Each structure stands twice: as C-alpha cells, then as structure tokens.
Amino acid sequence: MNPNLVQKQVRKTWFLLLTRVMCCGNVQSAESKDSVNIIEPRCEYRTAPLGIDTQAPRLGWRISTERRSWQQRAYRILVASSAALLQAESGDLWDSGEITSSASQQIIYRGKSLSSTQQCWWQVRVWGTDGSTSTWSVPTMWTMALLKDSDWTALWISARDSNPVHTEQKKLFLPPARQYRRAFTLNKPVARALWSVSALGIVDGWLNGQAVSDAYFEPGWSDYRKRAYVRTHDVSALLKVGDNCLGAVVADGWYSGYVGYGKLVGYGPYKTGRMFYGKTPALLAQLDITYEDGSREQINTDASWQVTDAGPWREADLLMGENYDARLAQPNWSTASFNASNWASVIRAEEIGSIIAPYSDNTGTRNEEYGFQRPVRLQAYSGPPVRITREIAPKKLREQSPGVYIFDLGENIAGNIRLTVNGPAGTTVRMRFGEMVHPDGRLMTENLRKARVTDTYILRGDANGETWTPRFTYHGFQYVELTGLAQPPTLSTITGLVINSDTPVVASFASSDVIFNQLFANITRTQLANFIDIPTDCPQRDERLGWAGDAQIYVRSSAYVADVASFFTKWLDDVEEAQLPEGPYPDYAPYPMGHGKPGKTFGTAWMDYGIICPWTIWQVYGDTRVVERHWSSMTKFMDWRKASSPTLTGVSIGNPWGDWLNLKEDTPVEYIDAVYYAKDALMMAEMAQAIGKESEAAVYRQLRTDVVARWCLDWLNVDGTLKVQTQTAHVLALENHLVPDAHVAAISARLVQRITDNGFRMATGFLGTKPLLPVLSANGQHDLAVRMFQSRNFPSWGYEVENGATSIWERWDSYTKEDGFGRHNAAMNSFSHYAFGSVCEWMFRDLAGIDQLGAGMQHLIIRPQPPTPTSNPERAPMSWVRAEHTSHYGLNSVAWERTVEQFSVKITIPPNCDARVFIPTSDVTSIRIDGQTVREAGLTVELSSTNPTLRIGSGSWNITAKP
Ligand code: BGC
Questions:
Q1: What are phi and psi of 575, to 5 degrees?
Q2: Fewer C-beta within 10 Å: the chain N or C terminus?
Q3: 264, 449, 537, 591: which to mutate for ligand 1, most atoms within 8 A of CB?
Q4: What digits encode the pLDDT tens for the residues 124-181?
Q5: Can you tell me whether residue 572 is helix, strand or coil?
Q6: For residue 470, is pLDDT > 80?
Q7: What pLDDT, on the 0 to 100 scale, is given for residue 23?
Q8: Where are the beta strands (DSSP E) in 292-349?
Q9: CB 491 within 8 A of CB 394
Q10: Which atom of ligand 1 has the smallest separation from the CA of 835?
Q11: d(C-alpha 735, C-alpha 726), whole Å
C-alpha cells in the first residue's frame, strides 16, 4: 500500500475521531459506549514520520474511552516490515507480546535492527485493568533515514559562483536563489520512493512540476560545518513510468545570508553580517526508488544536474526579504519536457575551492575558510516542519500618502503574505513590514534596526491576475506598506500567512476577567511567532537568535500552550552542538557569532538553559532519552561551573544580563548565579535519578546542599533577612527553596511589603517575573498574585492588553501612554518577545490548577485556586476560570467557579491517568461529587495540611463544596 495513502487514512481516522470529540465531548464507538479505542499512535512524537535515525524509536498512543477511571493493564505492539504482514498480525520486526504495564508513551522499540530507508508498519492493542480490551489500532508506520555515511551515494553539488566575496559593510549583497534540475526516465512502476535532501542553505524540493513539501526553510539551522539536517519526503505518488524531473531551489538562508545583528555590530566575514558558514550554498539529495518488482535505483545529485541563477528569485534572504521577478519565471522548469539548454552544468561542491576571509566577532578578527566544507555529520531532522498554520484577512486598508497603502492585519504575527494582483508586466510592487505604525499612520520600521524586511514582486503581466508568496524569508509584522500598483489595492490584495514550526496548540484559557482571554491569545501568538525552527527571541528585527535566557524562562509555558516535544528535541541538539569547548552553553544556539566581551559569550541564567530545558522536557513528557542524550554535555557544563567557582559562591564571569529588563531593581549577578547553580544541581540530581545514575544523583544532591549552604552564608543576614532588597531576590530565594524554613515566612512577608510599597506593581525583569506569581501563590499570597495578574496599571499584562497589544512585548515599557514608543523605539524594542508571557505557567498550574505529580503528566495534581471574592479593591477577582491542556495522554481540563456560597469545579482527566484533587474548602462534609457524597461516589477524602484531597481516575467529574 502506498504510504501516502496510509498516512491519509490515518489522518482521516483521527479527523473523524476528533470531530466526534468536538461534537459529542467524547468519542463514541460504533459498537458501544464502553469501547476502548487507540488514537494518535505516534513515533518519536510524530505521526507516521519519515526518516527516523534512531535504532530504537519511541512509540506512544492515547486511549479514547468513556469508561471512567480507565487504566491500562497491558499492551501488545506489532511492528512489521509490510502492511500485509501487519494485517496478518505478524510482527516480523517486533512482537512485544503482552507486556503488563500502564505505560502508553515513551515505549522503546526493542525489535530487530533496522536498516536504512526501511519501512516499519505498526499497531498496538491494550487491555484495561477493568477487563476491557481494545481492538488493534489503525495501522501506521515510520521509515528509517539513511543511517550510515556509506548509504549516501549522492554528491554535494553547487554552482560556479563568480561573485566576489562581499566586503562592503554598508551595502547589502543579496544574490539570487539558484534552481537545480535533473531529468530522468523510469522504465517500470514504482512501489516506493524516498527523497532524502539536505542543503547548505535553504532548499525547496520539486518533482514533475510539483512542490515536494509544504514546509519552509528546509533542512533547518545547524552549525553546518559540523552537522547538516536531512529531510525525508515520500515522493512515490509524484513519480511516473516514463520521463520525470527533480528540481530544487536553493537560497542562502542561515548558511550564507544575513544572520542576527551581524550587520549592526560588524560581525562576520569583512564585518558584513552575512556568509557566516560559507560563501556559496550547496545541495545534497538522494532519491531511493524501490520498484514494484523489488529492484532498486537511485537518482542522486551528481555532475549530471543542471543549474541556473537566472530565475525569478532575484533576492532571497531570510532577514532582508525576497525580490521575485515573475517575468523571469520559467514555467515547468522541474518537468522533463522543459528545455534547459541555457542552464549550466553544476559543479561538485568541492570545486568551489578554498575561500579565506577575515572573520570578526567579539573576540577580534581571524582568517577563516568559506569554501565548501562537508558537514562532518548528516542528521535526520527531528522537529516539526515549519509551515503555514493560519491565514488572516487584513482588517483595514488605507492610503497613507499618495500611492502608499497600509494594510492592518489586526494582529502581530510572524510569517509572510500572499499577494494577489493584476497589472501590466514589469509593475513593481514593494512591500515593507512593521509591527506598529507611528501616531501619524506611517509604518514604524525603526525597531527593525538593520533588517531591511522588504519584499518586491515584479508582475509578469498575466491578464488573469497573478499570485505570489515568498518562500525564503519571513517577517514579524502586523502592518504591510504596499507601493507600486497602478490601481489602488483592496483588502483582498494581500492575505497574512502565519508561519511557524508546526507545534500543535493544545491549550485554551478563559476566565471571568475577559481581557485575559486576549492575554492567552497574545501569549500563544507570540510563541508561534518565535518557534520557527528554533526558539527565537523575536521575529522582526535583525536578531532572531535562539536566545537562551528567554527559552529557559519560557520553556514550561510553551509546553502548556503547544506540543513542543519534538521541537525541543531538535533544538537541544543545536544547544549541545553550540556548547563551548570549556563547558559553558553560549548565549544562544545555534551560535554563529560570539557576542559580548571577549571570552564572555555566556551569562548566568542564560547558560543554564542547557540544564533547565532538558529537565523541563523530561518533566512534561516523561522523556528520559533527552536526559540521556545530553547527559555528558550537561555534566561537562556542571564541571565547568564548579571550576569557575571553587568556593561555590555566585560569580559574575560572563555577560551580566542579570534580571534583564527589570524596572530599576537590579539584582547582583553573583546572587542570581548562586541561585541558578543551586537550581542546576537539584535538576541534575533529579535527572540522574531518573536515568538510574544513583551515585551521580547523590553527588549532585550533595552539591545542591553545599551551594545552598554557601548561598545562606553569602546572602542571608543573621536576622534571616536578605542582603539584597529587590523583589526578584526574594522571589528567586523562595522559588528555589534556599531559605531555611525558619525564615521563609519573614522573607515572604518582606516580598509582600516590597510589592505593596511599590503600589502593588512588579519591578521584575525576565528572571523575576516568571516565578513572581507562583511564589506568592505557594506562600499564602494567592489573592495578591491574582490581584497583580488582574492589574491594568503599568507595568502589567493587563496594561499591555488594554493598550492594544496582540502579542507579548519585549519590555514592560515598549509602549507607554505617556511616551508612546518614544522610550526605546529606534533601539531594542520588539513587540513579539515571549519571555514576559512566562506567566502562562502560573495561569495553568496555579490559577486553573493543572499540575503534575512526577514526570510525564500521567499522574496529575488538580488544585483549583479561586481568589477570595473580596480580596481586590481595584476590580472583581476572577470568579471562574476554564483551562484545557491536552497532554500526550489526552485532555486535561479544569473549569472552576466560585461564588460566596459555593465552589464548583468540572474536571476532565484523560484515560490511563489519575489525579489528586485539592478541594478549596475547610468543610469536608460539604463535598459532593456529581451530586453524591464522597462515600456514595465510592471515593475517600484525605486530609492534607492544606486542603482535603480526593483521588480520581479518568473521565469527567463535577465536584462542589462550600468555599
Ligand atoms: C534579546 C533578548 C536576549 C538579550 C540578552 C536581546 O537582544 O532580544 O531577548 O535575551 O538580548 O540579554
């Protein structure tokens, strides 16, 4: 069976199941309400993935059933080398047999060793502890990548590049994208064909006139000299017996285009800000064909390919924009009948030869090689593809000045536009993009710094109109300025296209204070705008780097908002690759250029992402592999940390970012450093334990104890107060449990005092803001936390939303009523920075109350926390909250409501999960479950030191109690 068809069938089945979930709230089987079905079988977090490069892929599935408190007792997995064998229930690759286990995620394949491009069909069935049995899941599959170097017979190819190395710092250099093609003939019917493609640059694959994939920016960003990603596409359905033609468009991308603030600060070869990894892009592609008769053939990149740079993509730069001259388009260029007689022959990439240029960064200038350097390693891309995930019709259009039109999408996104126009050939349409407009309506571009962010489309003059979308760039924008059309545009001239790594959004949030519904939408939008191949800091200006402080602060929030498991799997490889030889993780990953003072290319709380992100991914997804994979890198970092501070005291030896963007309350970096050291040590101890490294766990536990003891010596006064009087200092101490028990209450009271003295406003930056509300909630100040959350005063989340934010701003004062954009406009002022969106973690965990017990979210803590109705003199405290989050096990939802007389909560727990529910009441006898007393419902109440708790299994539960 054609794998495309199977994938379609799989998708269709899920679609139907999902539709049923959405229509009926629960999946109903055709046979019976009681049936147990398996949905979403996934391999390495992905649906029917192609090109897996681990010999032991991990499988997982969800259960759909209306049976309450359903627990899996056992499972059986079959993996077969063909669909037919699987249908006959033969697991020739692996038959797990009936395994007694409640695990339904992170199941490691333990079958026969797998070979390159092998196709693995699989299904699973389960048994419940209640005696129920599922049928076999709908068959699904994965394929293996090219696993060994020797499997690659394709050659790296490139083009003769007569352009001299660009040496001018002031002037942009934007070369055209190149098109490659190769026609070939197939004499017999194809059973299966996998195309493995990589590039130094960005590649769009084509076959017989059709795009091979809807993904953007393949193969993805890595340190190309060390490692290049490979994408695998199943192109069976695009091939035919007879003449065929492969094509590829290759643009500079991160490899040789403009990256980050290189141009702004004069980094890169000749300080131009471009060409960080090499001068001329290159292509590697291998088509592995299996014919119906079982024979095989390959069509590989080699000297027989042709190339041109005379096509329509005159400029194609990720940061600066795209310039497309439709008059130069060569229709059908990737079909066999196209006449390519004026195309050139390709060269082997090695023929580029040596190109030495002086490279500059924070450490000075040195000569480096910019000719072709074969990546040491090829690696299958493990993340989700970047693609268009949403289209937006502009909300407004006006003529700003004669011939200058401004479109307003109504929201600040990252992505592109689709342009639909009609006009004479040669008409040049220019589009500039901005996040904001000035008070007089002009597009604001000052905050883009050196990013040109301009697209140009030159019409071919088609009387039926023409449509264009850039492929090799993206922008962060809400407004589009369009010039050059003879006729005034209409709202349908452009469509906004949201582009992001396709991490499915798995959450929703609503509450009685409706502006926070908008806040959650803004958080989600900002996350998606910045999860583009890597977690970037911002999508608009000349930066877009994988800034690590931002990522570590936001990683837990991101995993509430979306399924980010495979996204972080990919990026954590980039992180390890970027690790500096001595051990610290640099400020961002990938790491094309050093920044900051020489030798100080890391910083406290930024470098610690190398520990915090793997720990978080393990916690949320139960992923111990990510811990094992990066263990030696993490221990190297910890060893370096120890060597940097033999006395275990906090040090400031890197970039002193500190509590970045706080409001005039700097906390010493040495203080923060000690806190993060203690945090790292604890996380290392927990991770060591999780992967069975008992003795290392003990060592890290002891390290943690010692660092905390040292911290107490350094930062606690004898009376138990802190030596640093900032909000952030108090919050970090409490969040990380550094303060001896005897002093916790006093320090927490001091924090409250500081907040009160500050007019109930925060003064915190990136580091203090995330734990601020969680610490208040955990220390008996939940009402204050909710009050601060609901504030509309500057600085607050409410202030941003009330002032029209559709995304999360980089700074609390990115815009103020008094000064407009005036404070930071022409400098660092992004309106799409997710760090202050890290309050999302508190919204879900502390306010709605969706928390977890142990790693993996199979065992949950549900702790709804309504504020006291009279606790906020400024506005009505939230009286209801509804939050949903779909984990890898299924839907967790909490909808609580509190009136003066009654507390009620509706909880949904996914099958194969259980929860400990904390009920906010002191009157145990008032608890009712679906109208029944605890005993009638067959449950028991446990009395904890805080609230009474109930243990419940899967299903939906309505619980009420006297508040
Ligand atoms: C980025 C930040 C980042 C910071 C380091 C900025 O330019 O946009 O978000 O963390 O540099 O301090």
A1: -65, -50
A2: N
A3: 537
A4: 999 999 999 999 999 999 999 999 999 999 999 999 999 999 999 999 999 999 999 9
A5: helix
A6: yes
A7: 35
A8: 296-300, 306-308, 313-317, 321-325, 344-345, 347-348
A9: yes
A10: 9
A11: 14
Q: Which residue has the tokens 């999360």?
A: 808
- Average pLDDT (796-814) is 96
Please enumerate in sequence order all residues whose Cβ is within 8 A of that of 190, keeping only pairs 6 or more positions apart, or say none. 236, 239, 241, 289, 290, 291, 292
Three-state DSSP state, 190: strand
Mean predicted confidence (pLDDT) in 529-551: 97
Q: How many Å apart are CA 905 and CA 732, to the nearest integer?
A: 32
Q: How confident is the model at residue 78 (pLDDT cuts 50, 70, 90)?
A: very high
Question: In 10 A of CB 216, how many CB atoms?
Answer: 24
Cα angle 681-686-688, degrees, rounded to a multiple of 5 = 90
Question: Closest ligand 1 atom to the C-alpha of 550?
Answer: 10
The pLDDT tens digits for 216-236 are 999 999 999 999 999 999 999
DSSP per-residue string spanning 212-261: S-S-BSBS----TTTEEEEEEEE-GGG--SEEEEEEEEEE-HHHHSB-TT
Question: What percent of the chain lies above the pLDDT cut of 90?
Answer: 93
Q: How high is the pLDDT of residue 31?
A: 53
Of the candidates 791, 804, 871, the one whose C-alpha atom is nearest the C-alpha of residue 513 is 791
Task: Return the pLDDT at 265.
Answer: 94
CA atoms of 877 and 881, how far apart (whole Å)? 11
Lowest-confidence range among 256-265, 616-625, 700-709, 935-944?
935-944
Q: What is the Å distance from ligand 1's center to 17 Cα?
A: 43
Cα–Cα dist 606/547, whole Å = 8
Q: Enumerate residues 6+ apart whose C-beta is below 8 A from 631.
A: 687, 691, 693
Please give the distance of CA 404 from its chain centroid, rounded to a whole number.
Answer: 36
Atom of ligand 1 nearest to the CA of 660: 12
The number of the ligand 1 atom at minimal distance from the alpha carbon of 657 is: 12
Instruction: Indicate the pairing of strand 242-251 with strand 227-234.
Output: unpaired
Query: CA separation (Å) from 85 to 6, 50, 91, 123, 718?
Result: 15, 20, 7, 11, 73
Predicted TM-score (pTM) above 0.85: yes
| Atom 9 of ligand 1, nearest CA residue | 537
For residue 537, the CA-to-ligand 1 centroid distance in Å is 7
The residue whose C-alpha atom lies closest to atom 11 belonging to ligand 1 is: 547
The structure tokens listed for 880 are 């209801």
Chain-centre distance for alpha carbon 697: 29
**pLDDT at 320 exceeding the cut of 70:** yes
* Angle at alpha carbon of residue 823, lines to 817 and 827, rounded to 5°: 135
How remote is the C-alpha of 581 from its chain's centroid?
26
Tens of pLDDT, residue by residue over 358-396, are 999 998 999 999 999 999 999 999 999 999 999 999 999
In the chain the first and final C-alpha atoms are separated, in Å, by 59
Residue 681 pLDDT > 50, yes or no? Answer: yes
Q: What pLDDT was estimated at residue 19?
A: 35
CB 379 within 8 A of CB 573: yes
Give burial (CB, 10 Å; 0-12/13-18/19+) of 92. middle
Contact 343, 308 (CB under 8 A): yes
User: How confident is the model over 720-775, as pLDDT tens digits?
Assistant: 999 999 999 999 999 999 999 999 999 999 999 999 999 999 999 999 999 999 99
Per-residue pLDDT at 945 = 64
Enumerate residues 6+ apart whose C-beta is below 8 A from 718.
Answer: none
Distance 445 CA to ligand 1 centre (A): 19
Segment 725-734, tens digit of pLDDT: 999 999 999 9
Q: At what angle do helices 624-644 and 565-578 cross, to 10 degrees?
A: 30
